[in-house]
């Protein structure tokens, strides 16, 4: 029941299989460990850095190319497609 409420509906399926998650729910842990907080904060800062530094910078290249109303040279079109692909990757 806990697994179903944790992942009520995901189009791509749950990120983890229930066999991997259920033992974590059975542990009795109260409070926040400093080590866990530091690891979580590190992952958050790395993700935010990728979004702000990489994805937002790539959007400066991709957006004007996709908004162009004229025919583009093949190299420019590929540059826009690659920039947009990487922008999506680093955004998520």
Question: What does this molecule look like?
Answer:
By secondary structure, the chain is an all-alpha fold. It has one domain. It contains four helices and no strands. α3 runs antiparallel to α4. The model has no long low-confidence stretch (mean pLDDT 85).
Element layout with pairings:
Layout: H1 2-6, H2 18-26, H3 34-67, H4 74-91
Provide a brief overview of the structure.
The chain is mainly α. 72% of the residues lie in helices and 0% in strands.
Q: Please, how many domains?
A: 1
- Between the first and last Cα atoms, what is the distance in angstroms? 29 Å
Number of helices: 4
Mean pLDDT across every amino acid position: 85
List its salient traits.
single chain, 92 residues, mainly alpha, 0% strand, elongated
């Amino acid at each position: 029941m806990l697994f179903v409420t944790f992942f009520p509906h995901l189009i791509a399926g749950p990120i983890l299989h229930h066999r991997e998650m259920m033992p974590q729910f059975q542990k009795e842990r109260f409070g926040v460990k400093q080590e866990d907080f530091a690891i979580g904060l590190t992952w958050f800062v790395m993700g935010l850095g990728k979004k702000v530094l990489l994805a937002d910078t790539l959007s400066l290249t991709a957006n004007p190319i996709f908004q162009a109303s004229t025919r583009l040279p093949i190299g420019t079109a590929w540059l826009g497609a690659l920039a947009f692909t990487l922008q999506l990757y680093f955004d998520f």
